[in-house]
Amino acid sequence: MFTSEELRNNLIGCAEIVLFMPHGIERFSDSKSAAIRSFLVILFLLPVVIAVWVYRADSAPVSLVVALHLAQMVLSTILFLTVVYFLSKQYERQEHFFRFITVSNWQGVPGILLTFPILVALVLGADLAVWETYAIFVSILGYVYTGFVATHAFRLPWEMGGFIGVLSLAVGQESLKIVDYLQDYLTVGV
């Protein structure tokens, strides 16, 4: 698991990255084991994400929606990280790849905190149309953070970091379209 010092450093690093402080990225380890362990953060946050997927289910079977979104999350992560690895290799920066993975996974913590007001509104049954603008803002901010992390983790020009952020957006949105299509296709007549 995580040592108390590692947990403290990573949470402080998350807060510094939210404030666009490049030093925050250096708080994270660049080891392979830290990158692998950072996926535990995603697993820890997964119940909150599943709750959102269940909300999106509408009339579709919940198990189908969760399975499709889980597959989408895993496959889009693999695709995105594969492309990022080859980009980092192209620029001879692959030694920073594990730090990028670690930071990216830990950025789920501030992401959940930023979406917390929407989740509360969802639980309370509030009109979510009011929260759409905020949800778009949080989504765009997540992609900006991805570009920021890529720029500083790989020590790339900001234009390339921005490209990696846009790449994250493209992979996420296109895979979500596929999930929505499959969900509609598989629930016809249900």
Distance between the amino and carboxyl termini: 43 Å
pLDDT averaged residue by residue: 92
Helix content: over 70%
With helices defined by DSSP (H or I, 4 residues minimum), what is the helix count? 8
- Secondary structure tally: strands: 0
Radius of gyration: 17 Å
Indicate how many domains the architecture comprises: 1
Task: Output the helix-strand order.
Answer: HHHHHHHH
- Return residue spans where pLDDT drops below 50 for at least 5 consecutive residues: none
Q: How would you name the oligomeric state of the polypeptide chains in this document?
A: single chain
Major β-sheet profile: none
Query: What proportion of the residues form beta strands (DSSP E)?
Result: under 5%
Which class best fits the helix and strand makeup?
Answer: mainly alpha
Shape: globular
SSE map:
Elements: H1 4-18, H2 23-26, H3 32-56, H4 62-90, H5 97-106, H6 108-124, H7 132-153, H8 158-186
Helix pairs in contact: 3-4, 3-5, 3-6, 4-8, 5-7, 6-7, 7-8
Would you kindly provide a written description of the structure presented here, covering whatever features stand out?
The structure is a single chain. This protein is mainly α and 190 residues long. It has one domain (4-186). 79% of the residues lie in helices and 0% in strands. It has eight helices and no strands. The chain has helices at 4-18, 23-26, 32-56, 62-90, 97-106, 108-124, 132-153, 158-186. The chain is globular. The mean pLDDT is 92.
